[in-house]
């Protein structure tokens, strides 16, 4: 089972998200919090696989709570759950160690897929969030896209294929199944891609994949 901590200051939102996640037979909400400080305390007490955090909460917001959970609980993946997709929120969440960014207004199946992806060590950006981030580059977008295409051109066809699947939020086992490879081979491909692109993690690699046009949004 994927054990989830759910944090949102609105009880009705928590109830709705809990019901959606309950449709996934492999997901269990083990704790709920109404603010960031409570989320950190419950995460430390329950050590969930995923902390699903609203951004705007009283006291300690979800961004700060996520940073603290990443710092103190390396075994817990952090995903942000919000109605907001402003660039500043996305950038801070990802730089703080979050590996998922999901919209409350998104498809319920997308929410479940996102939780499964981050629990499996993959990155997951809601397609709407990814598009917003890319569009938000404004005048810099064409240059960044050209740079991403140039960087990915140095990859082998198989490495570009793996990068595209990382951009879709697939975990290593899912990529292995999709490409009919053993998981160890996929892990080696992912490591090589991160190294050749000069990025630190799968989230940054996913953004390069979006910018290079390797992911259909």
TrEMBL record:
Sorted UniProt keywords: DNA-binding, Phosphoprotein, Transcription, Transcription regulation
Domain Response regulatory: 3-119
Keyword Phosphoprotein: yes
Provenance organism: Streptomyces rectiviolaceus
Pfam families: GerE (PF00196), Response_reg (PF00072)
Listed SUPFAM superfamilies: C-terminal effector domain of the bipartite response regulators, CheY-like
Source species, domain of life: Bacteria
The HTH luxR-type domain, residue ranges: 148-213
Protein name: Response regulator transcription factor
Lineage, uppermost ranks: Bacteria, Bacillati, Actinomycetota, Actinomycetes, Kitasatosporales
Sequence positions bearing 4-aspartylphosphate: 54
